[in-house]
Design brief:
This protein has 2 domains: 193 residues, 3-Layer(aba) Sandwich (Trna Endonuclease, Chain: A, domain 1); 121 residues, ph1033 like fold (Roll). It is an alpha+beta fold and 324 residues long. Strands 10, 11, 12, 13, 14, 15 and 16 form a 7-stranded mixed sheet that branches. The longest helix is centred in the N-terminal third of the chain and has 17 residues. α3 crosses α5.
Length: 324
């Protein structure tokens, strides 16, 4: 059992009784959960061609944080409902409906955006500043030209959910755990990791849509045996929505080397057992590069976890401070 403590008292895990309670929590914390440059539309409308399977997503998340907008179809779920099979089926049906009935999706988004003046203004301003002719052109791109992606929001993350989703789908599926806690006064607090928070931390001046490379830290023995010896790397946690973009992987060797020393092209990213993590397989042996070194006293500290960047920035970098 996980407990949270503050001066306001002890907070115990308080599972949501209904999906409506989870949806209310999402609406309450949406700015902190998604970020100010993303718009959550909790609109439930039927999508899908009339002659095929039709279904109702729980909402849509419009990402306006980069040069290219993106929309995620949202599925909210409670762990108590034994969701593993259900979620996979729902996401598959969402992707098929999205493809077969894009006009309905576009209409749903347009009507939802129009209902809120602040949302309407934000989308119009984005469209104008990013060279879309108008809001209609912006939505046309969002629905028909951007890659399908899904977002699952769940109150408690099952150990094998991310592994199952990774096995089933080639497109990006992001998963967020939104847990609720309550004290003896009936007051609630929420625990979550903000949407793509660690990716965003790595990005400036790069955008999420440009990311194509991950950098992984390794000790000398792991670097020799696995990265350089087996032409793969495991077990790493990569965001589901980022996996389709990753084309390269770079090796950062920890002290005493303290530098990025090799890079390899990625052939595939597959689930690693049932851990929710991944194994990155290379197309061939990693290539040695001129070391990109950690600078003592520099802005970037020694790598502890996987980080995101681009091949272009990596090729130009002379030190880690040039990457992040």
């Amino acid at each position: 059992m996980t407990l949270l403590w503050s001066k306001q008292g002890l907070y115990e895990r308080a599972p949501y009784k209904k999906e409506e309670d989870l949806e209310a929590a999402i609406n309450l914390v949406q700015t902190e959960l998604f970020g100010r440059d993303r718009i959550y539309l909790p609109v439930k409308k039927l999508i899908g061609a009339k002659t095929k399977k039709r279904n109702i997503p729980d909402g849509y998340l419009i990402d306006l944080s980069g040069k290219q907008p993106r929309v995620y179809v949202v599925e909210n779920e409670l762990a108590a409902h034994d969701p593993l099979r259900h979620i996979a089926v729902q996401i598959l049906e969402f992707s098929l409906s999205f493809e077969s009935d894009g006009r309905s999706v576009k209409s749903i988004l347009f009507n939802a955006i129009q209902k809120n003046s602040g949302t309407f203004k934000k989308c119009e301003q984005y469209a104008e500043s990013h060279e879309f002719r108008n809001l209609d052109h912006f939505l046309e791109y969002l629905v028909f030209d951007s890659q399908f992606a899904a977002l699952v929001i769940i109150d408690e993350l099952p150990d094998d959910l991310e592994a199952i989703l990774a096995k089933k789908f080639q497109f990006g599926v992001e998963v967020i755990e939104l847990a609720r806690y309550r004290n003896n006064k009936g007051e609630f607090i929420f625990r979550f990791s903000p949407f793509l928070a660690d990716v965003i931390h790595d990005l400036p001046p790069v955008e999420a849509s440009e990311v194509d490379t991950v950098v992984v830290p390794a000790r000398l023995d792991g670097a020799k045996e696995t990265f350089l010896g087996e032409n793969r790397w495991y077990a790493v946690r990569i965001h589901g929505s980022m996996k389709p973009q990753i084309k390269h992987i770079a090796l950062y060797q920890v002290a005493p080397v303290s530098a990025i020393t090799h890079i390899a092209d990625v052939s595939s990213i597959e689930p690693w057992k049932d851990s929710g993590k991944s194994v990155v397989n290379f197309t061939g042996p990693a290539k040695k590069i001129k070391p990109i070194k950690l600078v003592k006293g520099g802005r970037v500290k020694a790598l502890q976890n996987l980080r995101y960047t681009t091949l272009n920035r990596l090729k130009k970098a002379k030190k880690l401070d040039d990457l992040w």
